[in-house]
# Entry
Amino acid sequence: MDMQIERLLDKLEEEIRGGKRSVFGNLRAVDDTKCLEYIASVRSMLPSSITEARVILQERDSILDDAHAQARDILSKARADAAEILSESRILDEANRRADEIVGDARRRADDITADCYQGIMDMFVSAENNLRDSMKIVDKSKRELYELLSGDGRR
# Structure
């Protein structure tokens, strides 16, 4: 998507730079329909990163739900295993230790999965934010250049 936006902005820039110069200064005649189409296409692409972020959040919630369900299953299995071993005190002590270990492992795994999900989502948000900033800088620069051309500030 970033490349598509870049290509559209390049086309917009080419259209502006390729416009015929006016005899009366630094004004250029450009195909405003093409320019507006390029701008509309860029705008239609920008919200997709927001939609992608929402999908990622939904996937994160699903992964977290699965991790919690898996942790509950592991806990349930550990408790069932511990109940079978309760016949002797040595075996009971071992069962309790093992159950605690399984619970700890399950919690650590759930925490690791959660942390990885949050980090992945944060990385995607930062990337989307940086891409949007870069696109906005390009659009702002193009607008300033166009404004200068239209206001006569860029006359040679």
Summary: The chain has a mean pLDDT of 84. The CA atoms of residues 57 and 121 lie 7 Å apart.
